[in-house]
Amino acid sequence: MSSRYRSTVAASVAAATLVVLTGCSGEGKPGAAGPEGPTASTSASPSASSSPSPSAPPALEGSWAGITDGKPVGLSIGQRHAVVIAGAQICQGKLTDAVTLRLTCTDGATQRTEGTVESNDGTTLVVAWKGGPKDTLKEADPGPSGSPTGSPSGSPSGSP
Question: Is the pTM for the entire model greater than 0.90?
Answer without folding.
Answer: no
